[in-house]
Amino acid sequence: MAKDAVGYALTALNRLASSEMLDKMGMRKTVERLAYTLTKSGFQVLTTTARAFKSSGKGGKPERLNAPGQTRDLFDLGITDEQQMIRDSMQAFARDVLREQAEKADAAQKTSDEVVAQAQELGLNFFAVPESLGGAATERSTVTSMLVAEDLAHGDMGQAVAILAPMGVANALTQWGTFDQQEKYLSAFAEDTPPLATIAVSEPRPLFDPLQLQTSARNDGDSYVLNGTKSMVPLAGEAELFLVAAQAENGPAVFIVEGGTEGLTVGEDPSMGVRASAQRPLILDNVRVPAENRLGEKDFDYRAFVDLGTLAWCALAIGTSQAVLDYVGPYCNERTAFGEPISHRQAVAFMIADMAIELDAMRMLTYRAVCRAEQGKNFQREAHLARTLVKDKAMKIGTDGVQLLGGHGFTHEYPVERWYRDLRAIGVAFGGLHL
Amino acid sequence: MNIEIPKKFKPLINNAYQVAQSTLRPISRKYDRGEHQYPKELDMLASVLDGFNEGDPANSAGAATTGKGTKEEEGAVKNGSNMGVCLGAMEMCYGDTGFLLAMPRQGLGNAAIAAVANDEQLERFKGKWAAMAITEPSCGSDSAAIRTTAKKDGDHYILNGEKIYVTSGQRADCVVVWASLDPKLGRAAIKSFVVDWGTPGMELARLEKKLGIRASDTAAINFNDCRVPAENLLGSPEIDTKKGFAGVMETFDNTRPLVAAMAIGCAKASLERIKELLKDHIQYDYSKPVDNCSAVEAEIYKMEADWEAAYWLAVKAAWMADNKQANTLQASISKAKAGRVGNAITLRCVELAGTLGYTEDELLEKWARDSKILDIFEGTQQIQQLVIARRVLGLSSKELK
To answer: Which helix (H) or strand (E) holds B231?
Structure first.
């Protein structure tokens, strides 16, 4: 019997348990250091030069993975044994590694190489790449990706974004890429040192709408010339591969841009939160990409591409909101005032009840949209409603989390102020990720 | 994971929707104005629903009963009667909440009997319309403070006390009455009794005049030395101080999602109507980020998002009941969410429609009155918050009062 996804998950778990990280680290190819250059607009950084992505030029049909078989049409919130196993390992990793490193990574504005390496040991990329391209995926489960995002964000949202961004690029290539694009770029994600990669959609202006892009893509012979500024791009300085959304002659499109391409630089713009994702602005100054690097063919759905990113942010919000709820309960049970735990007061207890109510509401809308996406149904309305609800309720949970801890909550001694900053991201973030 | 309503419920939903549109809506205003008039149209409707029921309970349009899910095959997921009843109730309340509550043979008492009666009792009370009597003049949400007493006398219990806010209390065949075997023993001593109308000592005190759900009669009933056969006690007659309240409280695990469903149905009516009224002002394209929409568009989307969240929370709680999963927390969450959302939506829709929405020419103002009770009965918003907070925090009712 062939090794299936469960087998690979077990192998990955086993490796994590037995591996000695530091030894592994020595073997890991060092990423080329960032080169700094001083320009008029301040410090700008050249993007990391990409490895040589190879194409055989053979031609063929792209690999598309189907959703897991839905044999019955019953309402069911249960998950498969495989999904449970993946969740168990993600939750353990989030608790033991991400939560421990969260404060440090936030301050450093970087997810450490050790943490990234450990995440890769879990085999996340492996599951995003189809078997025929060297990965382990036989089916594409958007639900699984969502659960992974939720569980990682329970540990720390910033590091979760850094870990998930490359996986998002792999997911997008699997779902939308042409045969050549998959062959050239996707197979690299199943290698021992998968490329860091990221998605650039947002632009820095008020009331940004991902369907109204100012970054332009001008068709020029057999290439496109990209101009504009992208914002909040995770791993922008380190990524070897970018998916960049830009306005083409016939509507918004996405382009595969290799790191180190001439005219591609990153700026510095430290943000309120999600800082461990190392997000930066990405500046495109007459960046020329081959016409065949325009993502997908006729079946490419830009709206769905954006919505799958939005739903990833919703899943992150759920994970972090759960972290808030899990934290404030014990705190309020232990913290005493006027002779009894503050949780014995309805004013406090009802805030916590509201967190639990709205968190479950966030879950149902997000799960619903993602289930529809997985099953190939239209999910635009559901994604829109999920974002509309989640961004408000998650922020309410974030602000109440700090409120419940009072002055303590305002300091870095406690994690709630970081969650507060991170949860504000849900209302502003587009792209960066792809379930 | 699959978050869709299964195809097998489509006929049920459709039947209930047809009833709502063709039968309930046309007489909605009539019985709102004529409070305490018996809506005779419902007798016909109830027979039709019984017909649906006997044909195939799955198509019953909300007439089937909630209850303890029975497991068909080990490990198989069930979408059963709890879910079906909720889906039916949503559509019926989309028609008219008052009529659903006034529907013969579908009282909350029936739900209580379904949840806790033994097989013999289930058989004996089959086909009876049962109302539910918990509240007393001096005790509302605090049902442990019930003063109505039940004293054992041979093979009967003698009931004494005063019950208020009994939905369908006058029209039902019988009333499920909560009474204490010994008030000194608190919650553990509270038991529920099925009392038939006509039992000597049971007397209708009055019918309430109300803010909404006027088509449904709300009775005050007095019990004076009312002798009830001992076999009409639901559940165990023993006073188990360890198990305490659990016996009577588990009814709520089934009925709270149902009341949530009512609030969802009522709010759906308002939301749909306001969208019709605003159709020249709004394009529903679900593509622009909500902050880029006009204020009224954004408001509609936010209400829709809250509504849809409430909808799936109710389905989730009912699904858990169908699958015999402990759902006390989720039942309360679903009711808290649906109660607050249903009330907020119906009130906001009146406001958005302006004076048009405020007049009796539209049903919007009626739905905004009807929705209020759904955030009150079967446990107020605040009671749900208490239940949820205690569960989440691991606190007892002594610690978190």
So the answer is: none
For the record, the structure tokens of A340 come out as: 């009894």
For A165-182, the pLDDT digits (tens) are 999 999 999 999 999 999
**Stronger pLDDT, A18 or B388, i.e. the higher one:** B388
Is the Cβ of B58 closer than 8 Å to some Cβ of chain A? no
* Interface test with chain A among B2, B283, B330, B398, by most A beta carbons within 10 Å: B2
B157 contacts B150 by C-beta, under 8 angstroms: yes
* Cβ-nearest to A75 among B5, B310, B337: B5
User: What positions of B carry a catalytic annotation?
Assistant: 378
- Whether residue B60 is predicted with pLDDT greater than 70 in this model: the reply is no
Q: In this complex, which of B287, B309, B395 lies closest to A389 when CB atoms are compared?
A: B309
- Cβ–Cβ pairs < 8 A, chains A and B: 157
Nearest to B305 among A209, A333, A388 (CB): A388
CB contact under 8 A, B393 and A352: yes
Please tell me the distance in Å from B400's CA to the nearest CA on chain A: 5
Point out the least confidently predicted range of A13-22, A77-86, A380-389, B44-53: A13-22
Q: Does residue A428 belong to the interface with chain B, where contact is any CB pair within 8 Å?
A: no
What is the rounded CA–CA span in Å between residue B117 and residue B110? 10
Q: Which of residues 272-311 of B touch A (CB under 8 A)?
A: 286-292, 301-302, 304-306, 308-310
Query: pTM for this one?
Result: 0.90
- Residues B385, A344: C-beta atoms closer than 8 Å: no
Return the minimum-mean-pLDDT range out of A44-48, A97-101, A109-113, A180-184.
Answer: A44-48
Residue A227's beta-bridge partner residues? A216
Q: Please tell me if residue A385 touches chain B, with a CB cutoff of 8 Å.
A: yes
In this predicted structure, what is the pLDDT of residue A12?
Answer: 53
pLDDT at A2: 53
Euclidean distance between CA atoms A343 and A255, whole angstroms? 52
Which amino acid, one-letter code, is at B261?
A
B316 at A interface, C-beta within 8 A = yes
Q: Is B400 in CB contact (< 8 Å) with chain A?
A: yes
Token look-up 């450990």 returns A118
Residue B298, min C-alpha distance to chain A (Å): 9
Which one of A344, A385, A392 has the shortest CB-CB distance to B308? A385
Distance (Å, whole) CA A156 – CA A270: 18
Tell me the ipTM for this assembly. Answer: 0.90
When pLDDT is averaged across residues B294-314 and rounded to a whole number, the result is 97
What string of H, E and C letters represents the secondary structure of chain A? CCCCHHHHHHHHHHHHHHCCHHHHHHHCCCCCCCCEEEECCEEEEECCCCCCCCCCCCCCCCCCCCCCCCCCCCCECCCCHHHHHHHHHHHHHHHHHHHHHHHHHHHHCCCCHHHHHHHHHCCHHHHHCEHHHCCCECCCCHHHHHHHHHHHHHHCHHHHHHHHHHHHHHHHHHHHCCHHHHHHHHHHHHCCCCCCEEEECCCCCCCCCCCCCCCEEEEECCEEEEEEEEEEECCCCCCCEEEEEEEECCEEEEEEEECCCCCEEECCCCCCCCHHHCCEEEEEEEEEEEHHHECCCCCCCHHHHHHHHHHHHHHHHHHHHHHHHHHHHHHHHHCEECCEEHHHCHHHHHHHHHHHHHHHHHHHHHHHHHHHHHCCCCCHHHHHHHHHHHHHHHHHHHHHHHHHHHHHHHCCCCCHHHHHHHHHHHHCCCCCCCC
**Chain A CB within 8 Å of residue B93 CB:** no
